[in-house]
Amino acid sequence: MKPVDKYFLEKEEPVKSCLLFLREYILNYDDAITEDRKYGMPFYLYNGKMCCYLWTHKEYDGMPYIGVVEGNKINHDKLLSEKRARMKIVLINPIEDVDINMLDTILSQIVALYNR
Asked: What distance lies between CA 17 and its chain's CA centroid?
């Protein structure tokens, strides 16, 4: 078991399943995306550069979210800045189907940004 796996195993359902789905979706989105544990959380790197991470929001009852490192350079109406200058997050409701179109739009913008 990798150290990052512990993060997912400690979560309760339905958050655990949601985070595991997001993990697999992000990792399978592009071959250049890899996973590492940084700052105690699962981080996703694009060609070695930190691009996004998974976490749960304390103020929204532990709702999972994707944090986008260069969120200030990504445009999507679901991204929230929450008083952050650089990073933005997108909340994911663990009891609803994940909006794959939204994920694809955000991930495609991340990949395009890191390919400049």
From this structure: 14
3-state helix, strand, coil in the chain (%, to 5): 35, 30, 35
Instruction: Report which residue type is found at 77.
Output: D
Q: Put the strands of the sheet holding 49-57 in their side by side order.
A: 33-38, 41-46, 49-57, 63-68, 88-91
Distance CA 38, CA 115 (A): 23
Contact, 28 vs 42, CB < 8 A? no
Place of tokens 């997912």: 8
Strands (E) located in 1-98: 33-38, 41-46, 49-57, 63-68, 88-91
pTM: 0.95
Q: Report, as ranges of residue numbers, the positions in the chain whose pLDDT lies below 70.
A: none
